[in-house]
Amino acid sequence: MKPAAFEYHAPVDPEETVALLARLGDEAKVLAGGQSLVPMLALRLAAFGHLVDLRRVKGLPGIEHRGGVVRIGATTTQAAVERSDVVRDAAPLLARATPLIGHFQIRSRGTVGGSLAHADAAAEYPAVALTLDARLETLSPRGRRTVPADRFFTGTWSTDLAEDELLTAVALPVWHRPRGFAVAEFARRSGDFALAGATVAVGLGPDRRIDRCAIAVFGLGPVPCRARAAERELIGREPTTEAAGDIADLAVSGLDSVPADLHGSAGYRKRVGAAMVARAWRHAVREAVHD
Amino acid sequence: MTDVDIRLRVNGVPRRATVPPRLTLADFLRTDCGLTGTHLGCEHGVCGACTVLLDGEAVRACLVFAVQADGAEVTTVEGLTPPGGGLSAVQTAFRDHHALQCGFCTPGLVVSVTAFLAEHPRPTDEEIREALSGNLCRCTGYQGIVDAVRAAAERGDAV
Ligand SMILES: Cc1cc2nc3c(=O)[nH]c(=O)nc-3n(C[C@H](O)[C@H](O)[C@H](O)COP(=O)(O)OP(=O)(O)OC[C@H]3O[C@@H](n4cnc5c(N)ncnc54)[C@H](O)[C@@H]3O)c2cc1C
Ligand code: FES
Ligand code: FES
């Protein structure tokens, strides 16, 4: 099917872009890589009178590592992240999650900002942002603001962004070493959105005990979710893989809006999610211990 | 709705056109340029039949609007023909290893594999299979395609 007709805008200046969004109101939608928006338009699941393309907007693409933070501009493609040495060294969790997104022909167009703003419940980047305590930088006609990841994702395909607000960048704090990261997910076919997945980050203190820990699950509710109770249990403990099963059970125990469809019941997804937490935990701990 | 003027190069040939914004790059190539080698299967990003190179990178032409290709260099399967004519190394390998039956998926696969080998000239079997996962083939069972990619890589002059 063909998308419904729309007016096309390709502004250059970020301020001009948000002013345009404000003027056009809910008739307008931002177009970044188009890898989620264009399928929705093609299937006529959505239609907008105006698309505002970010491809020419200045200052939006780019990756920089400065002051203990990796800052990635919103229109940086997933392919650019995949090829970035800076991301591999300073934000390994993001680097490892990237090849799990669709296929390389999708990642060549799909953007970091698009993934985060689209906020699919089973998407990898929102879970990574939540795990690393990322800060999301935005611009609207009212100015710039920064939103912590745990307040950004508000529901299925919905975020804290206003209609006339652009996501401009995501800032990922670099974790001190020794540290370990892992992502694990189960999808029905390579490249599909995951049925359930988990991201884990572990940091060790000078005494080689866990002094920082973040566990998130995705695909198991409308938004990715941190397993705060499990994390609290783990601080101060020795980094071992033995407890992986208990940690995993604790991580999924509180989930109460797990989706169910013909691909799997809620109970099944929870079990898969727990298995992914356990798998990611083992990988992350092994990496931290040898870091 | 306002049509938009675009200029781009398609297989090395400069083109100018005035297009409606909702026209996809795939439809532009097939209808306006007469390059029907780019196939359309699903029209929503899943099957890979429409894969073309946009500034050297493999993309789904059904998920790019022609207006977004303004200023870009596009290469379709027709553009992979070597200067003297004939088949490219990837195409030859596909023929030699029975990597096609009905041929519907083939242009997308050939373009995808060309881009993949340009970035991974010495792929492992696992990398080959992963790279092929974005192109659906309903006929071959993929084994011949995997063999063809390996053979093209081993020849070393795939791109
Ligand atoms: C076959 C296929 C498989 C896929 N598999 C996966 C997968 O496994 N995991 C996964 O995470 N994703 C997957 N995707 C989706 C892909 O990652 C998209 O690229 C991503 O979800 C959206 O990024 P985009 O740049 O393409 O955004 P677009 O499609 O252009 O936009 C998506 C939404 O975000 C908004 N938006 C975009 N950028 C901004 C911004 N800077 N500020 C404000 N709003 C913005 C748009 O208005 C739109 O609502 C898949 C897509 C396809 C076609
Ligand atoms: S037609 Fe473009 S991916 Fe199927
Ligand atoms: S050869 Fe028929 S779909 Fe691949």
Please tell me what the overall shape of chain A is: globular
Mean pLDDT of chain B: 96
Bound small molecules, deduplicated? flavin-adenine dinucleotide, FE2/S2 (inorganic) cluster
CATH architecture of the largest domain in chain B: Roll
Strand order of the largest sheet of chain B: 2-1-5-3-4
Distance separating the two termini of chain A? 51 Å
In percent terms, what proportion of residues of chain A is strand? 25-35%
Give unreliable regions of chain B as ranges: none
CA-based shape of chain B = globular
Q: Strand count, sense and closure of the main sheet of chain B?
A: 5 strands, mixed
C-alpha Rg of chain B (nearest Å): 16 Å
Structural class of chain A: alpha+beta
Characteristic terms for this protein:
heterodimer; A: 291 residues; alpha+beta; Uridine Diphospho-n-acetylenolpyruvylglucosamine Reductase, domain 2; Uridine Diphospho-n-acetylenolpyruvylglucosamine Reductase, domain 3; Enolase-like, domain 1; 4-stranded antiparallel β-sheet; 25% strand; globular; B: 159 residues; Ubiquitin-like (UB roll); DNA polymerase, domain 1; 2 domains; binds flavin-adenine dinucleotide; binds FE2/S2 (inorganic) cluster; oxidoreductase activity (chain B); 4-hydroxybenzoyl-CoA reductase subunit gamma (chain B); metal ion binding (chain B); iron (chain B); Beta-grasp_dom_sf (chain B)
